Amino acid sequence: QVQLMESGGGSVQAGGSLRLSCAASKDVHCMAWFRQGQGKEREGVAARTNSDMTTYEPSVKGRFTISKDNFENTLYLKMSSLKPEDTAMYYCAAAIYPLAAVRLLRSEAYKYWGQGTQVTVSS
């Protein structure tokens, strides 16, 4: 089993920044961030493989950066220029096997999930 623990969420004004962290109990092949806003479906935000390939949802590309501390098995999501539409519960996810590139932002590809951390952006 893989345990994931997110932290770093909070309330910020539009244009502000936050950095989310996700600590994994084991080294994993792929890790990703997902989010789900009120009344919206869960969507992939950013993903990173253990070979350092990354992919982003188009609406966050250029504003969000995903990175990983391999020694600490910790995934980060640096968010800047936050917008009210970024408001959501953010979840960390992990897979222990390689994923095809087209599956990196698909929630069904991930078995392990954190409990979520809330991000609220006010206008």
Q: Strand percentage, roughly? A: over 45%
H/E element sequence: EEEEEEEEEEE
Overall 3D shape: globular
Count the beta strands: 11
User: What is the structural class?
Assistant: mainly beta
Ends distance: 40 Å
Oligomer: single chain
Radius of gyration, in Å, reads 13 Å
Q: How would you state the average pLDDT, rounded?
A: 95
Instruction: Please work out how many helical segments DSSP would assign.
Output: 0
Uncertain residue ranges: none
Describe the main β-sheet briefly.
Answer: 7 strands, mixed
Helical proportion, percent range: under 10%
Describe the structure.
Helix content is 0%, strand content 49%. The protein has no helices and eleven strands. The protein has strands spanning 4-7, 10-13, 18-24, 30-36, 43-49, 54-56, 64-69, 74-79, 88-95, 112-113, 117-122. The strands form two sheets. Strands 2, 4, 5, 6, 9, 10 and 11 form a seven-stranded mixed beta sheet that branches. A four-stranded antiparallel beta sheet has the order 1-3-8-7, with no helix packed on it. A hairpin with a 6-residue loop joins β4 and β5. The chain is globular and about 40 Å long.
